[in-house]
Design goal:
The complex is a heterodimer of chains A (114) and B (111).
Chain A (H helix, E strand, L loop, with lengths): L4 E3 L2 E4 L5 E6 L6 E7 L6 E7 L2 E4 L8 E4 L6 E5 L8 E8 L8 E2 L3 E5 L1
Parallel strand pairs in A: 2-11
Antiparallel strand pairs in A: 1-3, 3-8, 4-5, 4-9, 5-6, 7-8, 9-10, 9-11
Chain B lengths: L4 E3 L2 E5 L4 E6 L6 E7 L6 E6 L5 E4 L2 E5 L5 E6 L8 E9 L4 E4 L3 E6 L1
Parallel strand pairs in B: 2-11
Antiparallel strand pairs in B: 1-3, 3-8, 4-5, 4-9, 6-7, 7-8, 9-10, 9-11
Classes of the chains: A mainly beta (114), B mainly beta (111).
């Protein structure tokens, strides 16, 4: 089966600019996650979708980050405006359903904010 | 706040040596997963442990879930250079099974 697809692979922007990341999960996976992984740390959950509904966005900085999964398939994560501390790898993952199913991760988008 | 502490943070060993990495928390988890992440790639699931005291083996890797489901260990026998990577543990919590990740153990196996 095809894995989780993410684009772009790399992005360099200046602070205060905006950026968007795209994710296409494994076909048939109802649950989609966006994680932020800062260098030297483990992934931190930003937002979790079940189909096209948000299950958990408690750690999403909503003043600058937004995400959508309008048709319950692919998803977009946006940052506007970006700050230096947003430099990280943004990982998308999907799983068949909530709770107890393994996560399948994409290779991530490495964002550098200068 | 639930935290998963992983130790050691870094480990550099020679090929053929054995090693153990640890994942500890004061919280109880419904299950615990171990992932390996290589540079430029996303984490890949190695194993899920669910029952307290459970031991699972994956070739030269042995995973154990603590009796109280608060901690876990990963033991690698006769490490190979291909074992190099970042090992992450992640505990599942809550009705949604949200995963909380530790910071990882960065393993380097030298030939």
């Amino acid at each position: 089966e095809a894995g989780v697809a993410q684009s772009p692979r790399y992005k360099i922007i200046e602070k205060r600019q905006s950026v968007a990341f795209w994710c296409n999960p494994i076909s048939g996976h109802a649950t989609l996650y966006w994680y932020q992984q800062i260098l030297g740390q483990g992934p931190k959950l930003l937002i979790q979708f079940q189909n096209n509904g948000v299950v958990d966005d408690s750690q999403l900085p909503k003043d600058r980050f937004s995400a959508e999964r309008l048709k319950g398939v692919d998803s977009t994560l946006k940052i506007q405006p970006a700050k230096l501390e947003d430099s990280a790898v943004y990982l998308c993952a999907s799983s068949l359903q909530l709770a107890g199913y393994p996560l399948h991760f994409g290779n991530g988008t490495r964002l550098t904010v200068t | 706040t639930q935290l998963l502490e992983q130790s050691p943070q870094f480990l550099s060993i020679q090929e053929g040596e054995n090693l153990t990495v640890y994942c500890n928390s004061s919280s109880v988890f419904s299950s615990l997963q171990w992932y390996r992440q290589e540079p430029g790639e996303g984490p890949v699931l190695l194993v899920t442990v669910v029952t307290g005291g459970e031991v699972k083996k994956l070739k030269r890797l042995t995973f154990q879930f603590g009796d109280a489901r608060k901690d876990s260990s990963l033991h690698i026998t006769a490490a190979q250079t291909g074992d190099t990577g970042l090992y992450l543990c992640a505990g599942a919590t809550g009705s949604q099974g949200n995963l909380i990740f530790g910071k990882g153990t960065k393993l380097s196996v030298k030939p």
